Give the backbone structure.
Amino acid sequence: VTDWGYFADLPLLTDEPLAKYTAARIGGPAERLIVIRSTTADLVDVMRRAWAHDAPVRVIGGGANVLVSDAGVPGLVVVNHVAGFTVHNQTGTLDVANVIVSAGTTLTVLVRRLATLGIDFAWAASVPGTIGGAVVNNAGAHGGDMASDLISAHVVTPGGEAIYPVDYLGYSYRTSRLKARSDRRFLVTEAVLRLRRDSPEAISARIEANIAQRKRTQPPGASLGSIFKNPPGDYAGRLIESCGLKGFAIGGAMISPLHANFFINAGSATAADYAALIAHARAVVAERTGILLETEIEMIGAF
Ligand SMILES: Cc1cc2nc3c(=O)[nH]c(=O)nc-3n(C[C@H](O)[C@H](O)[C@H](O)COP(=O)(O)OP(=O)(O)OC[C@H]3O[C@@H](n4cnc5c(N)ncnc54)[C@H](O)[C@@H]3O)c2cc1C
């Protein structure tokens, strides 16, 4: 049992529904929850206290890549909204800029702000969530990904603080050395990106083209984005569709008729509905094609 007295001076919420903090609008209560908007120092302070007192703790950003169980999450959930960025090499003649971004910065906001400065991060224009989640997951879209743009990430652990160069993060498709860590005892505080410069008009045009392509190919509304990773040489969506599963639903969770790797929350979906639909799609695809799909999303809490 956690002694929350160590956090008495902080505005921890009790039994706070995580559905409010996830893109799919799903998830039971966090035993304790705090939203940090102020500073990285405050964020690090909360994490260090939790680690020091062995309180279970999990940091999330936009909650866009997590399926939280209906039973919720024991311990403390820290929602990181510490946002901001600084640009280096901005006024030189170099054709690249280094951008230092706080981990709680929303990708879609960052993309637009950088575009006005003539810095191209357009691939991320329609990826929900924060830089922290993107660093962990090696987020990518429209031919770009974090592995290509990241120079390094600042990471705090119970043992101290370090700068992880991109090579150390061991990136491959939608995964990293961090995502693979089962202890979760790390906090990404900042990322250093190296991005190309271009005219704001050209970047805006790419942003709009990327968003338009999304709208054509992916369903609107609450979802978790791609549920499964694409297996080598194929697409999870194509495989699920080939099994006739488009539109198949369990409870309030439905395989999108538009894109079969998107599972839509029709409004009343529970995490159990999602988990059952994921298990069903995986089993049917495995039986019919011999391919065992691997989830891209992370499941948090008890399933
Ligand atoms: C509609 C939709 C479309 C999507 N499209 C794409 C896409 O095109 N490409 C793509 O790559 N992804 C896509 N996703 C998935 C998601 O947007 C990305 O994975 C994103 O990077 C998640 O960021 P987040 O802040 O929401 O992470 P969260 O879901 O909050 O967290 C994800 C993981 O990162 C950890 N984490 C988050 N922040 C930190 C931090 N500061 N320090 C340590 N650990 C941290 C969490 O503990 C968790 O393990 C989509 C999702 C949705 C809902």
The pocket of flavin-adenine dinucleotide is lined by residues 23, 58-66, 80, 103, 127-130, 132-134, 136-137, 139-141, 186-188, 223-225, 298 (CB under 6 Å). The two ends are 21 Å apart (CA to CA). The longest helix spans residues 271-289. The chain has a mean pLDDT of 96.
